[in-house]
Design goal:
The protein has helices spanning 20-30, 48-51, 63-83, 99-114, 126-132, 154-168, 206-209, 211-217, 244-247, 251-254, 257-269, 271-275, 308-321, 363-382; strands at residues 9-16, 36-39, 55-56, 87-88, 92-96, 121-125, 142-146, 150-152, 171-173, 178-182, 185-188, 191-200, 220-230, 241-242, 281-284, 290-293, 297-299, 328-339, 344-350, 353-358. By secondary structure, the protein is an alpha+beta fold. Strands 5, 6, 7, 13, 14, 15, 16, 17 and 18 form a nine-stranded mixed β-sheet that branches. Helix 3 crosses helix 14 (363-382) and helix 4 runs antiparallel to helix 11. The chain starts with 8 loop residues before the first strand and ends in a 9-residue tail after the last helix. It binds flavin-adenine dinucleotide (FAD).
């Protein structure tokens, strides 16, 4: 990665953090012709943005999350084309193994048909689901397809976006920690930056830079166990695959009575998996390996130790679902994201100082749109010395 030595400098926009939300803010700025510097203490993006499933789960969101997700979708498609990284318009598959799981999906389809939104979810019978996913016939009754969703490879996308932003004129200062922020001023371990606007996009480490704000809002960390495996699968997995554990998590399904009943049944039947706060889901990377996960532990500072019980559960449940007789583990890792009482942290504690985070596990889906939408007004209000360019 490009590194820059010390320099005090004045620019239109300084972004703290090179995760997907910081990259989204930098992209929003450079497309408006602003001068932009992104500061990150690491040597490249290595936070939540590269540790996730790469699942851009647009159609499972509701409310503001859906608005940000829809806005992100256009930006992801444009960036993939212009920055040249792998992204597919895969949709999302949902596998249902029991009647009450199908009932949640049928309710979602019904709600959509009675609403004004475009149809973006449809039921799949077992044959169609099995043609798109290498699952055991006896493990599924049917399922659904959410159509607008996308999939990328999170290990490559952020790096490609950084290179693209550099080509557009964004300056990155890696291996440079930010120690204090104020309107118009960013103190770093390599000097001070003066800025028209400051965007703080440090993810879960917001409490290290702005502890009072983090405490007031109630943002903590959520630590997740993850795993990458290979398996002799008879067919490829056409799209990210969710299960009934996922239906319990996403805004679109959250308010249904059918989801409440499903949660009660699943928690009663599998308290071990409920205790892991499991979201049993899968994505297949272009090399054929499967990313699987995930478990959730929320705390101000979750411990670094990853209990083997979570990985055992991932492998057991995958063996029940997939048509494969063995899985070989390639990697295990812990990911951490910001967790708060609502889905987003959008604050302007002082004029010109913006703080942005996804405070649940949907930042890849929503982060680019969150940055674009939130900063749209800020850029207009700030009347910065715009050098040209088309938003
Ligand atoms: C295991 C896992 C699975 C997930 N799966 C999905 C998924 O499939 N779909 C989805 O939509 N979302 C998913 N998420 C959530 C998503 O990955 C996050 O919401 C998103 O990546 C957060 O982006 P960010 O830019 O806020 O944070 P990050 O990517 O964590 O970036 C923050 C950056 O700030 C830098 N930083 C922090 N403090 C400082 C400082 N003081 N000075 C300088 N730099 C600093 C860090 O070094 C880091 O690079 C998942 C998350 C995890 C952990």
């Amino acid at each position: 990665m490009t590194r820059h030595s010390v320099a005090s400098k004045a620019v239109d926009l300084v972004v703290v953090g090179s995760g997907i939300i910081g990259l989204g803010a930098a992209y929003a700025g450079i497309r408006r012709g602003l001068s932009v510097i992104v500061v990150d203490r690491t040597d490249a993006p290595v936070g939540a943005t590269i540790r996730n499933f790469g699942h851009l789960c647009i159609g499972a969101q509701a409310g503001p999350a859906r608005e940000f997700a829809d806005a992100s979708r256009d930006i992801w498609l444009r960036l993939a084309r212009d920055a040249g990284f792998w992204l597919r318009e895969s949709g999302t598959l949902i596998a249902a193994g029991q009647a009450d799981e199908l009932a949640v999906l049928e309710r979602a389809v019904l709600e959509q048909d009675s609403g004004s939104a475009d149809t973006d979810i449809r039921m799949l019978d077992a044959d169609e689901l099995l043609s798109r996913a290498p699952l055991r016939r006896d493990a599924v009754l049917g399922g659904a397809l959410i159509t607008p969703d996308l999939q990328t490879n999170p290990r490559e996308a952020a790096g490609a976006i950084v290179r693209h932003l550099v080509s557009l004129g964004v300056e990155f200062r890696f291996r440079t920690a930010v120690t204090a922020v104020a309107p118009g001023r960013v103190q770093t371990t390599r000097g001070v930056l003066d800025a028209g606007l400051v965007v703080v996009a440090t993810g879960h480490d917001i409490d290290q830079l702005l502890p009072d704000l983090a405490e007031r809002v109630g943002v903590v960390r959520c630590a997740l166990d993850m795993m990458r495996v290979t398996a002799p699968l008879p067919r490829t997995l056409d799209a990210p695959l969710l299960t009934s554990w996922s239906l319990l998590r996403y805004g679109r399904f959250d308010t249904f009575a059918e989801t409440t009943a499903l949660r009660e049944r699943m928690h009663a039947e599998r308290p071990d998996l409920a205790a892991l706060d499991l979201n049993q889901m899968y994505t297949q990377l272009p090399d054929g390996s499967l990313i699987m996960g995930d478990s959730h532990v929320k705390a101000i500072q979750p411990g670094p130790f990853q209990p083997e019980a979570a990985f055992d559960a991932f492998l057991d449940e995958a063996s029940r679902l997939f048509e494969a007789d063995r899985f070989r583990v390639l990697e295990r890792w812990q990911g951490v994201y910001a967790s708060g009482p609502s889905e987003f942290l959008i604050e302007e504690p002082e004029p010109g100082l913006h703080v942005l985070a996804a405070t649940t596990g949907i930042g890849m889906t929503t982060g680019l749109g969150l940055a674009e939408r939130t900063l749209h007004n800020a850029f207009d209000r700030a009347s910065l010395p715009v050098q040209g360019g088309t938003p």
